[in-house]
Sequence to fold (461 residues):
Amino acid sequence: MHNLLDFIKKYNYWFLFIFLEIISVVLLFRFNSYQGSICFTAANEVAAKVNTYYTDFYHFVHLKDVNKNLTSQNVHLQMQVSQLRDVLAAINKKETKNEQVVNDSLSGYTLIPARVTSNSILKNENYIVINKGKEDGIKTEMGVVGGGGIVGIVFLTSKHYSLVMPAINTKSNISCRIRNHRYFGYLQWNGGSTLIAYLNDIPRYAKIKVGEYVETSGYSTVFPPGIFVGKVKSVANAPDGLSLQLKVNLGSDFANLSDVCIVVNKERPEIDSLKAKLSNYETTQ
Amino acid sequence: MIGTFLKRLLLLVLFLALQVLVLNHVQILGYATPMVCVYFILLFPLGTPRWQILTWGFLIGLLQDIFTNTPGMNAASLTLVAMIQPAILKTFSSRDTEDNEESLPPSAGTMDWSHFLRYVAVAVITQQIVFYLLEAFSFFNLLEILINIGGGSLMSFFFIWALEGVRMGGAKKNSR
Fold:
């Protein structure tokens, strides 16, 4: 007994070492499935506060560039508006079919603006933290959209901050279609460049040209249909040979993300309750 | 005792701030990101109880993980470095300094530059290998992992070299 105690006393640091390594590995494995682990991510209040100060500072330093961009964009938009007004006046005053479709598809959605407080692009599993949380009405699995197109999906939320899984996370999986075609597939990212993702599961008989637009399909409740994702860069066979794999040039610049919007689907609770009813029905059968 | 503790705590906050606010935004060609938290562990003198080194190493790793959304990866790799730190320090420190300067933190001044840099290199490469293997968790993309490890190790090594240079410069000024 005495020897045993001596042994433990002498090598106590080995037990500590093994204990600490086990904690680390548990954290590593638990993070993906364990939703309560919010306190171990950058969405926790303290870490997010520090990152917020940093990005505030960063924004302040880059105000000049932002201003320049905004002005040029403003001029561009004004020109476009005047052009479109002329075109509209030239056609007629009735609401066109196309406008009706767009209005209908966006009527169930509201947009919440947010700012990115921290961002990573280097890893295989990148995450973005934004400064809106549960108190602002953000829930998990809401879509996030930036100026250049879709950004990602809300993954975890805390009181004032949320963690977003962007399209450039290897676990991300977003349903997309090709504009003016009926084919749809899943947008996935394999690591490497943040500008390029792959659209899988497109049937082989689809005639898709380089430069066509990829947009959200609207088959999930996350994104409304028709939001810009990117452009087709090249078309190739998928590794399994059963479908096409499109190389997509993403519209969002993930390395330089600052202002985003969260898409809130007002009809989502209704759809979710329907799905819950269905699963209840299936389990009772 | 309390004095060294507070000094360590201050150093920890400083290194963490440097890592999270500055160095995590450094990426050369999208690969090499310097990680200087190893340096914090390397500063423990030879006589320190090993449980202290381990706890500090785990703590700084965990805090870094929280800021960078890499659960457990930094904690695991830095705890390992904290475990082997006394052994590699013993290997590289020269015999005559070992006895009388045991309580001084290891530095280029007490060890001379070539020994100190080899000491840093072993620790940095160990940490980077463990970190990137845990991040990828497979050998599938071997080339990319090797580029990450190589680039990260080089950058971290040079940053720690630079930091050590600054520290030595400060020490020289004080002694004059």
User: Anything to note?
Assistant: Chain A has six helices and twelve strands. Chain A has two domains: 2-30, 36-61+109-265.
